[in-house]
Amino acid sequence: MEVSLVAVEQKLWSGTATIVSAQTTEGEIGIMLGHEPVLGQLIEGGTVSITTTDGEKLIAAVHGGFLSVTGKTVTVLAESADFADDIDVEAARAVVTENGDDLEAIAVAKGRIRAVERS
């Protein structure tokens, strides 16, 4: 199936995949080719996992946005997204410990930490 991972700032990835997994407000959902159409709201500070047709597993931290599924496509539209390989986990942990009042920054940092832990 065709998959696109898009953040407000840029298109992070597009290609073909065998499965996509995302954390939505209704719980974690796994999508394979032929899945019923669905629109899901991504959680704040969640993760998305994409397994490509080549067997590569991509993990991204996503903050807010939506997951749109048709029978042949999956589009992840996130407010922000970062691949686990690009995340500075120590900087994310520092945000969690030092930004007690900034709940959005903490949610983004926790999502980044989760993405690194899942990869």
TrEMBL record:
F-type ATPases have 2 components, CF(1) - the catalytic core - and CF(0) - the membrane proton channel. CF(1) has five subunits: alpha(3), beta(3), gamma(1), delta(1), epsilon(1). CF(0) has three main subunits: a, b and c. Belongs to the ATPase epsilon chain family. It is a peripheral membrane protein. It holds the Pfam family ATP-synt_DE_N. Produces ATP from ADP in the presence of a proton gradient across the membrane. The keyword Metal-binding does not apply. This is ATP synthase epsilon chain. PANTHER family: ATP SYNTHASE DELTA/EPSILON CHAIN (PTHR13822), ATP SYNTHASE EPSILON CHAIN, CHLOROPLASTIC (PTHR13822:SF10). InterPro entries: ATP_synth_F1_dsu/esu (IPR001469), ATP_synth_F1_dsu/esu_N (IPR020546), ATPsynth_dsu/esu_N (IPR036771). It is found in: Cell membrane. Residues 1-81 form the ATP synthase F1 complex delta/epsilon subunit N-terminal domain. Keywords: ATP synthesis, Cell membrane, CF(1), Hydrogen ion transport, Ion transport, Membrane, Transport. It comes from the Bacteria. The keyword Ion transport applies.
